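REQUEST FORM: STRUCTURE PREDICTION
Request ID: SP-0412
Submitted by: Lab K.M.
Chain count: 1
Length (residues): 219
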Amino acid sequence: MISYNELRENTDIKTYITRADESLKALGYTEHSFAHVTKVAETAEYILETLEYSKYNIELAKIAGYLHDIGNIINRIDHSQSGAVMAFRILDNLGFDAEDIATIVTAIGNHDEGTGVAVNPIAAALILADKSDVRRSRVRNTDYTTFDIHDRVNYSVVSSSLNISKGKNFIKLELEIDTAISSVMDYFEIFLGRMVMCRKAAEALGLTFKLVINNQTLI
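STATUS: Completed
RESULT:
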């Protein structure tokens, strides 16, 4: 199996990630390029490493994290499924075996809210890593007067962290939000589905999901 670090050097994959993000930029979406997919891969690694999963499974999760948004090059709608099909072809051509391909594409195909389910630990880690990446630096719109609710909410996040407790019984997403920019209610308006998905993903890993905003526990 080609390693995560080797996969990151693949020029074809770099092109797909870049062009997928260009499409989302044209649609007015937040950043989904290398900063996002690398953070997702590293967060998935942190989750599974902390829970003492094998290095092999951690490597699969990192690869899934790196490839999870390439489907946006086709269309934002159903991008998890189209991305899974793209990943299948890429990994097959790179000589990955069927077991590893199956695990990775299952995670990618199940990472988005609405259709995704944490059907295995890799998928669960990917969901938590992806949905917890809320930060100001992902907002590309530089004109505050034209911000939509997604821009406002992401830009309002001063800091964010995802941590598993020492007892490994809960995972906490902690956000500091500037309420002069966006209210906590705004956050829930656009992210409630994602937070429910995170709760279910955490449960699949034997954890309880907690959401803390401005030092108040909301979930």
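NOTES: The chain has a mean pLDDT of 95.
Reviewed by: T.R.
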